[in-house]
Write a structure and sequence with these properties.
Strand order of the largest sheet of chain A: 7-6-8-9-19-18-15-12
Largest sheet of chain B: none
Shape of chain A: elongated
Helix content of chain A: 40-55%
Structural class of chain A: alpha/beta
Distance between the termini of chain A: 80 Å
Radius of gyration of chain A: 38 Å
CATH architecture of the largest domain in chain A: 3-Layer(aba) Sandwich
Strand content of chain A: 15-25%
Order of helices and strands of chain B: HHHHHHHHHHEH
Number of helices of chain A: 17
Structural class of chain B: mainly alpha
Shape of chain B: globular
Number of helices of chain B: 11
Strand content of chain B: under 5%
Oligomer: heterodimer
Largest interface: A-B, 69 and 77 residues
Number of domains of chain A: 3
CATH topology of the largest domain in chain A: Rossmann fold
Chain lengths: 551, 241
C-alpha cells in the first residue's frame, strides 16, 4: 500500500497582488524621492528612488490596467485629481505669499520699551558705518543645535543690515559644516563667544576682527562693538621699552601680553617705543601717539628723556606711568629724582618712597592692598568697586604711595586710596630683606594713602595717570581681579579719548521694576485664580450635567 | 455666509450647553492659574514678571487641548450619520467646515480672554510690558487657530474621535517639536528650514518676545487655510466616493 501523498499546496501570486505590491513600492518610493530631493538634491539616492518609483508604478499599470485607467479617466479620479490639484495650487499660493512677506521684512515691535527698534545712538553709529568706504561683516557661528538663538539674534542683525544701507552685512557660519572658516575663532567659540565683527578684505577675509560677547542685550552688544570697530586704527598707544619696563609681547607671568591683546581687541594699535633711542637720535615721540605707557621702569630717566616727555606733554600727549618699588640706587621717580620734581612742579603728582601697608583692606599679605576707597566720579574709577561685583576691585602688590598736591598747577585728583588704617612703610631694606614691616610713627607715613591719581592740563590737553604699582599689569595679575584690567583700560580710554569715541549708553528700560505685593494680596490672587475661576466653571459643568441627567 | 453663521451658532451653542466644555475650561483655567501664581511667587523682589508667560504655556498646552476641542466636530457627525443629513441640506461643505471651525476658535478665544484676568491683576501690582503681552496674545490666538484647524482636518478624516484626537496630537507634536529633528541634522541651513516649518519657529522667536512679524501671521493663516481647505475636500469627497 502506498503511503498517502502529502497535499501539494501551491503558492499562487495573482496579477492583482503584483499590481498592489507595485503600487505600494512605487508610492513609498515617490515619497522618499521627494524627501531625498529636498534633503540632498540630485544624488545617487534620488536617482535610485526615481527608478524604483517608475518601476513600481509601471508594474502596477501593467498588472492592473483597468485600475490604472480608472485613475486617469473615472469620475472618482477626476474628482480626486481636482482636489489634489486645487490643494497644491493653494499650497503654492500660501508659500508664495509667505516668501513675499518674508522678504518684505514686515515687523511690528510691540514692546513698550521698543527693545527691537534701534535707538538714536545706534542709528547714529550705523550712519557712520554707512559713510565708511569699507564693508563690515558680522560673522555669526550657529550650529543646528542653536538655531532658535540664531532666529532671535537675526531680528537684530537685520536691523543693522537695513540701517547701514547694506554696509554692514551678516554671514552665518555653521562651525561643524565649515571647520576651516571656524578655525581662527576656535578659542573664542570655546569661551561661548559666537559673534564676531570685522572689515571685509578683497579676498573675503576679515581684518580688525572684534569678538561680540552677546549678553542678551543684543543692541548694546552689537552697537558697542560696531563703535569700537569704526574707531579701530584711530588710536595708537606706545609702550616704552628702554627702561627695563614690562614687555607687552611677553606671554609669561611677568609679561604684559594680556594687556596688549585687550587693547588690540578694542581696535587700539599697540607699538613699541624706546625713549633712550629717541634721546640719542634727538627725535621726539611720534605725533600719532595717543598715549605712552611706561610700565614698571627699573631706572631713572635721563635729562634728555625727560625733555622728550615734556615736549610730548606740551603737545597734549597722554602718559600712563606705573612705577614700582625696588631696592635700587637708581629708583625710578625716587624722592629727589629730576622726573619726580618735574611731575610735582607741572602736574602736582609725585611718587613717594613709602610702600603702602594696609592691615584693614588687603589680600594675601598686608602688602597686597585692595582698592579700599575709589573716587567713582571720573572715567577711570567709574567701573571699579561696583556693588555686588567683588571682581571689580583692584589689587596692587607692593605699591608706592602717591603724593597729590592739593593746590596743583593743573587739575588733578585721586582715584584709588587705601583704608585710613594703612601706612606708608619707609624702611624698604627691612621690608624686602626680612619681610618685616610695622608702623613707626616718626618715620612712616600715616594713611589713608593714594595709589592711583590723575592730572589734566586744560591748556595743553596733557593727561597723566600715575600708579604706585606696575606689577598689577602683568599677565599673572591683570585679570585677577578683573578690576586690574578695568582700571588700565579705562585709564587708556580716558587719556586717548577712545572712551568718548566708542561710548554707548545702554537704554534704560521702564518695564523692569520689581513686584510690590504682600502675603495677603498673594492669597487673594490665588483664591481668585485657582479657586473662584476654575470652580465657577466646574459648578456650571456640574449643573448642566445634573440637568441633563434629570431630563 | 448665512449657512456658515447657522452652523457656527449651532456649534457654539453646543459648547455652552455641554458640561464637557465647561470642564475643559475649568482645567484650562486651573492650569494657567497654577503657572501664573507660581511665577508670581518667584518674581517677588527678584525679577520682573514674564509678559508672555501664559501664551508660552498655552503653546504647549494647545497640542493636547486643540484635538480635545475639535475631535468630535466632524467625526461625531460621521459616526452618528448626521453628516449625510447635513450634506443633503442646502448647506455647502465649506459652510459646514468653516462654521464648525469658527465655533471652536471662538470658544478658544473666550477661554483665552478669561486668562486676561491675570494681566489685570498684574497691572494692579506691577508694571508689566502690556505691548509685549499683547503681541504674545495675538500670536497664541493665531497659533490656537492653526492648531484647531489641524484638529478639524483629522476630525474630517475619520469617524473615530479617539483616532482623530490621536492623529491631530501626533501632528501637532511634530509641528511643535519638529525643530528637534533640525538639531540632529548635519546642516545649519537645513535645520533653519525645518525650524521655520514648525509652529515653535513662528512663535518663540517672535510673538513670545513681543514681535509681530508678517511672515508668522502668513504662516499661521496659511496653516488654517490649508487645513480647512483639505477638510472641505474630504467632506466633499463623501459625495463622490
Amino acid at each position: 500500500m502506498n503511503a498517502p501523498q502529502p497535499e501539494q499546496r501551491s503558492i499562487r501570486i495573482t496579477r492583482g497582488q503584483i499590481g498592489q505590491t507595485g503600487l505600494l513600492i512605487g508610492g513609498t518610493s515617490m515619497i522618499g524621492l521627494v524627501l531625498a530631493l529636498l534633503w540632498q538634491g540630485v544624488s545617487t539616492l534620488t536617482i535610485t528612488l526615481l527608478a524604483t518609483t517608475i518601476t513600481g508604478l509601471a508594474t502596477w499599470a501593467l498588472a492592473l490596467p483597468r485600475e490604472f485607467r480608472s485613475l486617469l479617466t473615472g469620475r472618482q479620479a477626476r474628482q480626486s485629481t481636482l482636489a489634489i490639484l486645487s490643494t497644491l495650487i493653494l499650497l503654492a499660493i500660501v508659500v508664495a505669499t509667505y516668501v513675499i512677506v518674508l522678504r518684505a521684512n514686515i515687523i511690528a515691535d510691540m514692546t513698550v520699551d521698543e527693545r527691537f527698534t534701534l535707538s538714536e545712538q545706534s542709528q547714529s553709529i550705523l550712519r557712520a558705518a554707512a559713510l565708511s568706504n569699507r564693508e563690515i561683516e558680522i560673522r555669526a557661528f550657529y550650529t543646528p543645535q542653536n538655531i532658535d538663538q540664531r532666529e532671535i539674534d537675526d531680528q537684530y542683525f537685520q536691523l543693522y543690515e537695513a540701517g547701514s544701507d547694506g554696509r554692514v552685512r551678516i554671514r552665518y557660519v555653521d562651525p561643524q559644516a565649515e571647520p576651516g572658516l571656524a578655525a581662527p575663532y576656535t578659542d573664542a567659540l570655546a569661551q561661548g563667544i559666537y559673534v564676531f565683527m570685522g572689515y571685509v578684505n578683497d579676498d573675503g577675509n576679515l581684518t580688525s576682527v572684534l569678538p561680540v560677547a552677546m549678553s542678551g542685550r543684543q543692541e548694546e552688544d552689537i552697537s558697542q562693538a560696531l563703535a569700537i570697530l569704526l574707531a579701530s586704527g584711530q588710536f595708537t598707544v606706545y609702550f616704552e621699552r628702554s627702561l627695563e619696563t614690562l614687555d607687552p609681547l611677553n606671554t609669561q607671568q611677568q609679561g604684559m601680553s594680556t594687556i596688549r591683546r585687550l587693547m588690540e581687541q578694542n581696535g587700539i594699535i599697540v607699538q613699541p617705543l624706546e625713549l633712550a633711542v629717541l634721546a640719542t637720535s634727538n627725535e621726539q615721540i611720534p605725533r600719532n601717539a595717543a598715549a605712552l605707557v611706561i610700565a614698571r621702569p627699573r631706572r631713572q630717566l635721563e635729562t634728555a628723556e625727560i625733555a622728550i616727555l615734556a615736549n610730548y606733554l606740551q603737545r597734549g600727549g597722554a602718559l600712563f606711568i606705573a612705577g614700582d618699588a625696588f631696592l635700587s640706587d637708581d629708583l625710578f621717580m625716587g624722592n629727589d629724582s629730576a622726573f619726580n620734581e618735574f611731575m610735582w612742579e607741572n602736574y602736582g603728582l609725585r611718587l613717594t618712597e613709602a610702600i603702602i601697608v594696609d592691615p584693614a583692606s588687603s589680600g594675601e599679605t598686608q602688602l597686597d592692598i585692595l582698592s579700599a576707597q575709589v573716587f567713582t566720579n571720573n572715567a577711570i574709577g567709574a567701573n571699579l568697586n561696583l556693588p555686588e561685583q567683588p571682581d571689580t576691585g583692584v589689587v596692587f602688590h607692593i605699591a608706592r604711595a602717591i603724593e597729590v598736591d592739593d593746590t596743583p598747577p593743573v587739575q588733578n585728583g585721586r582715584v584709588i586710596m587705601s583704608s585710613p588704617s594703612a601706612w606708608g612703610e619707609r624702611n624698604w631694606t627691612r621690608l624686602f630683606q626680612q619681610n618685616d614691616y610695622s608702623f613707626e610713627e616718626d618715620i612712616d607715613v600715616a594713611g589713608p594713602l593714594t595709589s592711583l591719581a590723575w592730572a589734566f592740563d586744560e591748556d595743553t590737553g596733557a593727561k597723566i595717570v600715575l600708579v604706585g604699582d606696575g606689577e598689577f599689569l602683568t599677565n599673572g595679575r591683570v585679570q585677577s581681579p578683573q578690576g586690574n584690567s578695568i582700571v588700565f583700560m579705562d585709564s587708556i580710554g580716558w587719556m586717548t579719548g577712545f572712551t568718548e569715541e566708542v561710548r554707548f549708553e545702554p537704554r534704560g528700560f521702564t518695564t523692569t521694576p520689581l513686584l510690590f505685593v504682600g502675603g495677603q494680596q498673594l492669597d487673594v490672587i490665588a483664591f481668585i485664580t485657582l479657586i473662584l475661576m476654575p470652580g465657577t466653571m466646574l459648578v456650571i459643568s456640574t449643573g448642566i450635567w445634573l440637568r441633563r441627567m434629570r431630563t | 455666509m448665512r449657512a456658515t453663521w447657522l452652523v457656527f451658532r449651532r456649534e457654539l451653542g453646543q459648547y455652552f450647553t455641554s458640561p464637557l466644555a465647561y470642564l475643559i475650561a475649568a482645567g484650562f483655567l486651573l492650569l494657567t492659574g497654577v503657572t501664573f501664581n507660581n511665577d508670581l511667587a518667584f518674581s517677588i523682589g527678584y525679577r520682573p514678571v514674564e509678559p508672555a508667560l501664559i501664551p508660552n504655556q498655552l503653546a504647549t498646552v494647545m497640542i493636547l487641548f486643540a484635538p480635545l476641542l475639535t475631535m468630535r466636530l466632524l467625526a461625531e457627525e460621521q459616526r452618528e450619520g448626521t453628516l449625510e443629513l447635513l450634506l443633503t441640506s442646502p448647506i455647502t461643505d465649506t459652510a459646514i467646515v468653516l462654521g464648525k471651525f469658527l465655533s471652536a476658535w471662538t470658544y478658544y478665544s473666550i477661554l483665552l480672554a478669561l486668562t486676561l484676568i491675570y494681566q489685570i491683576i498684574l497691572v494692579q501690582i506691577a508694571f508689566p510690558d502690556l505691548g509685549h503681552t499683547a503681541g504674545a496674545y495675538i500670536g497664541i490666538w493665531l497659533y490656537g487657530g492653526a492648531a484647531l484647524a489641524v484638529g478639524i482636518l483629522f476630525s474630517a478624516l475619520t469617524e473615530n474621535q479617539i483616532l482623530s484626537a490621536f492623529l491631530a496630537t501626533t501632528t501637532l507634536l511634530l509641528l511643535y517639536f519638529g525643530d528637534g529633528l533640525g538639531q540632529i541634522v548635519a546642516s545649519a541651513e537645513l535645520a533653519q528650514i525645518i525650524f521655520n516649518l514648525t509652529l515653535r519657529g513662528h512663535f518663540i522667536p517672535s510673538f513670545a518676545i513681543g514681535l509681530v512679524r508678517g511672515e508668522d501671521i502668513v504662516y499661521f493663516a496659511g496653516i488654517i487655510t490649508l487645513c480647512l481647505f483639505i477638510a472641505i475636500q474630504i467632506v466633499n469627497s463623501r459625495r463622490w466616493r
